[in-house]
Design brief:
Largest sheet: 7 strands, mixed
Shape: globular
Number of helices: 15
Bound molecules: pyridoxal-5'-phosphate
Distance between the termini: 48 Å
Strand order of the largest sheet: 3-9-8-7-6-4-5
Structural class: alpha/beta
Radius of gyration: 22 Å
Number of strands: 13
Length: 398
Amino acid sequence: MAVFQDTWRKILEERSKAGLIRHHKVLESAQGVNIHVGGRPYLAFCSNDYLGLASHPEVSEAAIKSIESYGFGSGASHLVIGHHLEHELLERELAEFTGRDRAMVFSSGYMANMALVSSLVDKSDLVLQDKLNHASLLDGGLLSGARFQRFLHNDMSSLEGYLSRFSQDSKINKTLVVTDGVFSMDGDVAHIDKMAKIAKRFDALLMVDDAHGMGVLGEGGKGTLSSLGLSQDDVPVLMGTFGKAFGTSGAFVAGSEQLIEFLTQVARPYIYTTAMPPSIASATRKSLELIKSADSSRNHLKALIRYFREKVSTLGYQLMSSDTPIQPVLIGSSFQTIALADFLKEQGVLVGAIRPPTVPDKTARLRITLCAAHSFSQIDRLVDVLADALQQGVISHD
Ligand SMILES: *Cc1c(COP(=O)(O)O)cnc(C)c1O
């Protein structure tokens, strides 16, 4: 036992010295732009609830009605007896929404990615992933046992270089290329149109995790692939989550009939876990309906993004090249990032302070997320507080 405790102490001390200890904030209200934490009201810019659906009354109502009819628990895994009509209907609606043959739901995006990557490749295969892919994709790659190579972020020549190098390797059977659609800590969009062409040329399978694009980008909120006009043939494996713009919880994979049938039979993180409660599927079905008709929310969100970027760029902060609701402000030092986030918090404004290992060393940042429920005057407030922080020397910018 002592050897474990020594390890735990050492790691905690290291993290603490590097300014990397994380603390929970306890949310005491509904999720939204005006929230309560520690008995205090805050204006929040840190959730992934991009369309404000997490506390939308119609979504809550759909869950309540479902619980009244079906109770709460799913009671079993999907393949035993936990797969409810509500899951089934949600899957059909998602297949139609994404223009794919078929879809399957998972209890979380983390699990969906572990399931997908580890089912699609094994130790005789290769998986190529963008360096900034979500942790769940990277972990799925490790679990698969496949040769694992990360290519430079959104760099097509780096991807092509690896593909052509590994194509000479006769020990490699199949190749999977995986990317986030919208990068969760940077907010930029992957060059999926180019990747689709490259993947086809090298006979590799392309998978896109569109957790942050679904509901937000594309016509009718159909996501990054739809905004780029990419079909099931271009991107055979599409994954999306419900914990972001959908405002609920869980995830899905959409693709060909055969892909979904294959995953249903072999994906261990799908098979050996309890199905999500039916009420979550019911709430998600309502979210999907709301997303389809949320053009005005999406337009407002786009206007907020432009407005925020224009105003912040005049202050001297370093923004990243993002047109999505994820608007990171690059600081660099973890300590300065915390100092700035703490200052904002004292002023009643909550933002995410993202540090390594979530992002690369020396690239700590504020992760500011905008939501369709924000108003222009709330953006003004955020920008004013950011300006005050510079004026008061909370951080030094050079
Ligand atoms: C949030 C997220 C996930 C994980 O989804 P959960 O449902 O929260 O487990 C996976 N991939 C990306 C890109 C994400 O942003």
